Structures are given as structure tokens and as C-alpha cells.
Write the C-alpha cells for this entry.
Amino acid sequence: MFQSFETTSDPALVAPRIAKLRGLLEARELDGFLVPRADEYQGEYVPPRAERLQWISGFTGSAGAALVLKDSAHLFVDGRYTLQARMQTDPAVLAIESLVDTPPPTWIKEHLPHKAMLGFDPWLHTISEARALREAVEARGSRLVALGDNLVDAIWHDQPAPPLEAVDIHPEKFAGRLAKDKLAELAEAVGAAGADHCVLTDPSSIAWAFNIRGHDVPHTPLALGFAILGAKGLPSVFMDKRKLPKATEAYLTQLADIRPPSALEETLSAIAAKGAAIGLDPALAADRLRMIVEEAGGNVVETADPARLPRATKNEGELAGSRAAHRRDGAAVTRFLAWLDRQAPGTLDEITAVKELEAARRHAGDEAQMPLRDISFDTIAGAGPNGAIIHYRVTHETNRTLGKDELFLLDSGGQYEDGTTDITRTLAIGTPTQEMRERYTLVLKGLIGISLLRFPAGTRGMDIDPIARQALWKAGLDYGHGTGHGVGSYLAVHEGPQRIARTGTQKLLPGMILSNEPGYYKEGHYGIRLENLIVVRPAEPLPGGDIAMHAFETLTLAPFDRRLIVPSLLTGDEREWLDAYHARVRAEIGPMLDGETLAWLDKATAPL
């Protein structure tokens, strides 16, 4: 299995660990310390060594922060994780705050004691985050103190070692372009931004730019490291050579100067000492990098990561791989759905379902000689009330039987060398209630609304997010997460800068892959989420139209549960889209299925 079902947090450990941290605060003459869910690369995906927030708080989510003060402690999480945080931490020790409504800078500006000394690790906060924190702290007449070490590391005595997993070459047939051509393009972008050099801090950008993949973090093929790109000359890659097999080292040596991670600070300082202008992305680069440049006399040019947009706008080779991956993945999911439908309610549990789905993906990959490299995240398999926990992770302790007449929310994905998948289906176990069917249909209307959309160039994710919510809003309902996130090409299943959300300011460009996943969650009862991956494409011109338009092509191929649809709630256009989508599913993945599963698919995709 690519995932375990062990419980990785214990609320009983929170109080003694917070007490140890407070002991260090007193010894260092500090009034507080911030513990973000981040590593020095500022990625969502971190190795076990960097799970400091989980260790100190018990919270295992992918976003959040803890603020530990002498007399209080606070855990900041967003709407995806509110229920999860309540269960995983000790609320008597850590008060749960909203990461969206009152993020740490806002909370600090209102509540931090005056003349306090607040410590932070500048490797674990971006330039923008540190700036906001500094302004908030100083507004209280207090001081933000950059520490040379991390206080959690000082008390985490069995902290795991840094990862040393092998780095692979990502073939050009899947990358779609040679690395040398990408690097030449990035060098031009560095110069155009007014910089002499730029530090690539996002491992996804390094993976994309150099056509490499790694295994340093769970479920995401990243090789952790940094790179310095110059407007001229050979780039430098800072990565432990023990991670580089001979073929990979020989390949990278042709593209860059390979140096150990320990050489990064000295190298960057030496470049800055010559008065160079160093490009750093304030939203991605650690504040420590800014400090190194400025302390050496260099100039920081705040500019976007030059690889971020090219990486997000997939080329035709990457899109062809994604389509192939989704066909295989859709066949695997459909085999699983047909199998699940043959099981009597109350006869299997969440863990059994997760194992069966992973086995189906492995089988589909092996059949096509394109092995499943990993799952793209821990499968979310929530039966009944567990489905209302938006990012639920099943463990042996929480494992629940799929009971009669309830809903089962299944959010999963695969990592294949030609593409990354992410799909959610909500399924009826037994006979659903009328309320379940109506709310499922409202969610489906949101997914179809996005799928049918045509929009002009320049449209942002925030502009179209309400379209996915309008049917729910009319019923007085909503969901507490974004409608869509970007997805990488055999990279991170959560990729920026594109997203469909209230905060999605990036323009949606052709080639960008996003998720389309509205939902509804009734705490203590059930959850509903439906998700397809979509890609931005130029739309066919319309007679009389006078501006270029974009549209979405749906990549995901698997049926929706017709038992949960109330046809009368769908418009004619919505029914037409759904019937056409199901016909396409049948045509594209039907040839990959055996007789029994194909017969099930024919019924599951019959026109409404």
C-alpha cells in the first residue's frame, strides 16, 4: 500500500510538548514562538522531518500554524480542517482559530502582549509572511526575532533524518520539452525581471525546469533542493549527491553545477557581495534567503518564480500524457465502482474500499505498462458522518463500516509517469434520502456549470467560483473550501498559481489543469463532493462572436451515481451535458473493461 492507516497524532502529547516549548521560551527570554506547517522549501508537501506542526499540536492537515505564547496557545486552520483539528489536538491547550478570518498577523495585531519578543524560524516563513508578521508585531510595540535554530527541533529528540531518496530523469516524451530549452527560457525571464540571478525555491519548479522527479515527500514526486539561475551562465543545483544515481548525476552535470545543500548560503552570499540583483519570489522564498542577500550587500528583486506559469500552462505533450493517464485511471475507478456496487451494505469498511481502489489502479497501470508510481494523496474515504470531514484520513481507529442507506465520499488520485489524477465521487450505499439526492444534485449542478462555461481571456478563478455555488446558495447552502486547485504533470496534485476560489487572482490560461469540485457537508451526517479535472482550452468561435473565448475540456472519465440525481432539478442544458459526458465515458473507457464491468458501466451511463 502507498498509504498507511496508522494514527499519527495523539492529543494527550500536546500539553507536555507545549510545556517543553514554553521552557525554551523562558530560557531564550522569548514571549512566544510560531510553528508553521512548512519546511525551508515552503511547499505544501513536506518530509516527515519537517512535520513540526503535527508534532507540537497533533494536527495533521496540509495548512496551518501554531502560535505558542507564555500564557496561551493557538492553532490556526482553514475551513477544510476545522472538524479534523478539534479531534486531533487538545482544545484545552490549543484554542482553534480561523486561518482565513483571523490569520496569525491579524490575531497578533489584536492580541499579542505589548513589548513582547516573538521568535520565528526565517527558513519556515516566506518573505511576504515575515513582512506581515513583522508589521503586526511592531504594531503592538513588540519585536519579531529571527532565530538561528528552530525551537521545536531542540525538543524533538527522535526527529527523522532528512530524506535521501533517488532522483529520476523525467523523459522528454512526457515532459514535452527538453530541459535545456526550458532553462534558456528561464534565463531570459530572469534578465527581463531586472535580476542577475534568481533562486528557485519550489521543488516543483526545479523538477519541471530540469526534467527530474524524486521521492522525498509522500505521494508527490519531488526531489528537495534549491537552484540558482543566472541571466547568463550555468545554473547551480543544491542537492545531496547521495540522491543522484550515476545516470541522473551525469544528466544533471550537463545542465548545471551540482553543489551540496550546505553550500547554498555561502554561494548566495558570495554572489550578493558583488552587488548582484537577486530575484526572490516573496510568496515562495524563505525570509532567510532575503536576509542572506541583504546582509551580504546584494539587492533583492521581488519577482515571481519564473518557472511557475510555464509549469502551470501544460504543453501538448503533457496534455496528451494527462489524457492517457485519465483514461487508465477512469477504467480503474470504474472497475472499483462496479465492484463496490456488488457488495451488500454493512459488509465492508473504509479501509477495505481504499485497498481495493489502490489495487484497481495498480492493475490498470500494469495492464498498460504504465505502472502506478504512487497515489497522489492519502485517499479520502468517508462513510456517513466521516464524509463531512472535508480532508478525512481513515485510520484503524476511525475506520467505519459503509452502512445501509448512507453516503460514501471517495476522493482519490494516482501518480503515473504521464500524468497526475484526482477524482471524487459520492456514492449511495443502499437507498439515499430525498434530502441527500436533492443536495447531491445541487452539487452536480455546480460541477456542470463550470464544465459548460465559456469565458473571455483574462478571466480569473475568483470570477467563476460563484457559478459552482449558485444552486447551493439559492437553497441557503454552501461549502467551506475553494472550487478548484491547479494540478501538476506528474507533480503536485495541488499546484499554483491557478485556482477557482474566492482568492483565485491568477488569470486562467490555456493549458492550465484545474480541479472542479464543489461540495456540501452536513456535520455529523454526511458529505457530498464531486470532482473532475478540467483543462483550459481555446473555445470554438461562435457565429457573431467578436472576442476570443476559452472553455474547459474535462479530463476525468468515470460515471456519476445516477441514483443520487433528481432529474427534475436539472435544466435541459445540464441534462444534455451529463448524458454526453456519460456517453463519452462509455466510449473511451468501455474498450478497457471486461464484460461484467462493461455491463455495469452501460447501466451506470444510460441517458437520464
Observations:
- The chain has 19 helices and 28 strands.
